[in-house]
Amino acid sequence: MADLHKLAQMLQELDDQMVACMKCGMCQAVCPVFAESLNEADVTRGKIALLENLAKEMIADAKGVQEKLNKCLLCGSCAANCPSGVKIMDIFLKARIIVNTYMGLSPVKKVILKGMLTRPGLFNALVSVAARFQGVFSKPVNDLIGSSCSQWLSPVIGDRHFLSLAKEPLHGAVPSLDSAPGASGLKVAFFPGCVVDKMFPRIGHAVLKVMAHHGVGVFMPAGQACCGIPALSSGDRESYEKLVTANARVFAKGAYDVLITPCATCTATIKEMWPKFLDGFDATTRAQVLAMSEKAMDVNQFLVDKVGVTAVDKPTGGTRVTVHDPCHLAKSLGVRSQPRTLLSANRDYELVEMAEADRCCGCGGSFNLAHYEVSRSIGRRKRDNIVASKADVVATGCPACMMQISDMLSQGGDRIAVRHPVEIYAETID
Amino acid sequence: MPSNALIKEFQAIVGKENVLESEADRHSYSYDSAVLDPVVPDLAVRPTSSEELGKVVRLCNENGLPVTPRGAGTNLSGGTIPSKGGIVLLTNALNKIVEINEEDLYAVVQPGVVTARFAAEVARRGLFYPPDPGSQAVSTLGGNVAENAGGLRGLKYGVTKDYVMGVDFFDVNGELVKSGSRTVKCVTGLNLSALQVASEGTLGVFNEIILKLVPPPAANKAMMALFDDVDKASATVAAIIAAKIVPCTLELLDNVTINLVEDFTKAGLPRDAQAILLIEVDGHPGQVVEEAEKVVAICKKTGATEVKAAKDEAERNKLWEARRAALPALARAKPTTVLEDATVPRSKIPAMIKAINAIARKYDLTIGTFGHAGDGNLHPTIMCDKRDKNEFHRVEEAVDEIFDVALSLKGTLSGEHGIGLAKSKWLEKETSAATIAYAKALKKAVDPKGILNPGKIIGG
Questions:
Q1: Which of A12, A15, A19, A23 to mutate to test the interface with B (most CBs of B within 10 A)?
Q2: Which residues of B touch A40 (CB under 8 A)?
Q3: Domain count, chain A
Q4: Domain segments of chain B as ranges
Q5: Using one digit for the tens of pLDDT, what is the confidence trace for B265-313?
């Protein structure tokens, strides 16, 4: 088949990276999806073998390989544990670009990525309409978590317990900001990310409060776009480049020391992925993208490593808080201790560790939409570990994890709040 | 390819979701961890109960369909490559720990239980399952028994076969054959359990395995010794054993490995050291202290340039880092990692390492050697790129020669990785024509149609 030959040739550019996989199979130990299905094609070794065979034209069913390739959380657990150090995330993202471009995006993804996400103005307008009407179609189920479910929308969202869109997004309350550094002498650029902007503006407000308290100047330009990971992980390079370019433009207008985000996935994308997918940019944009990427830092890490927040000496305790380590924070960026330090800086909380704190929650962005049942079983394990820790609050530095964990706890009928470490730290500031 | 009618019969036994027939799924069961060409099976079938397992085997035999049992697919000799097509029989849903008996010190497991999960569960009950193959985080106990997997603790604690008290398995007709027992002593009938160990799935399909457990050692102490000469390291191993001390681990890293580990970890290992020995003693606390002191004294006497003894768990972890990093460091050096396991009597280690280094020079290859010095089980690891046809041909010649040397030193082809497809052509060289003929007659008698993992160990 002539077409398949072309696809195979394109995949051969990954050969140098794929050949490093020695097929030892150690990824089976940590892959959350494999733990559910026990299917080799769901684990990294299997996926790489399939891509190799597709590149060698040993497999005719490209669509079958595409389905397996897309059935992955991109959590990076395998990469963090790979004895041969295979650049698994690079391989999978590049392969998704090649295969998904070749096979085409699903119609739903086309509408979301090309029709909406790459048009921030329209995206914001649609979300604000949805925020106004969401109460009509859904009913609250857990006031502590803030979740709702909806009979009306079940054909679209199933029986998820979802969090409501904020009445007022962060960019509504604070359209833009450019304050001078205070006592700290530091100035940050603030990239809240879509989920914080539209669903958890309270986290954005907490970040701004903490920065003001520590005398950190903040540059938050208007017109920010999504970090691009939903497009990149769908293999939609065109939309990805549009989003990154939009961000590069608005952030180039200000000067700052560090670019902070309260979203583990946004930070990992900007820091790890942006420098690897530069081919489509002109020299100016490339320089802007790299400048942002080099300065990107998780907000927990910034507060502990740069501002110098430390744990209090004599905590009084009272509220038990446990930490979920987001994959993109712990495994991609190696940020593990800082969120814990931040929580220990609030004397009213007592830190208790849950089992498997760094095991993936199962969200995986659009994985949750395409494979909800798998996502939910992985999430239940996380929920069980949280409940077993007897915590009152679970804190995690990723709003996507917060959505998934909220869904799981709410379905379990649990009275455990889900919060960002920065929110808990912000409580110490009057 | 099996007919649609036959596929439906498999589906009727195990359910539709447990018969994997798509091209992508079949391709993902065409390989294991050995550096060999993949072979795509006709189907992959995953029974979820003993009853289903027996029926699947019977159906395969009735249709003359080859059966390749597969746990985690981590073996290094091609034992789980379905070289004659047929079905890959997935055991990973048969993953129940049936019983852990703390009074009688045994456990009963299904074949798909993951080794590390089992060892952790046993440890939680205050007991110990010593075999610790390198792939234990993912390998299955069924696979361990079928390959007679070893590990780092072989010298003192033995290998998987030393813990197998019984194996219940299905014959080709799907009838359950029982062997062994839950008792320490058992002489009832032929020792069929022992026949299943290292059989690589060629003589039966495991249903349940009875494993021996032991009390864990109360204390341990790790030491590391550096040498400027492999002979001195080997003399140290001999002197430790001669002093009636049996360490639980006695691991060796050669100069090539030391340098690659240092490149990778920057832990500060001396690049000019010719060998590192990692030694750990365990047992009663008093005995551990005494033996550790003796080991340190022996190392100094036999010419170690430096000896370190861990004072606490953190230091122990640090000493172990070099050994833990050995395979990752070697694996990162070049795209393809050919991990061999030719084994020699421990006194022949210096001769073996010298020969391996000469072979590396002769064929212009990089070979790092590390492994279990205490039991003579070395892992010469050839770093290469299988895409380079010329180089890979030299690798194959080098491997041939490594086996020749191992046999000439009264060693064996494989200490723990198995024969599978990769080494069956050398089997007669180590054994005899009569040995192969006997094994083939045995195989023919219990598996007349040759459906049980055909092509492995004895060829055919």
A1: A23
A2: 25, 28-29, 73
A3: 2
A4: 4-90, 97-212, 219-327, 334-408
A5: 888 899 999 999 999 999 999 999 999 999 999 999 999 999 999 999 9
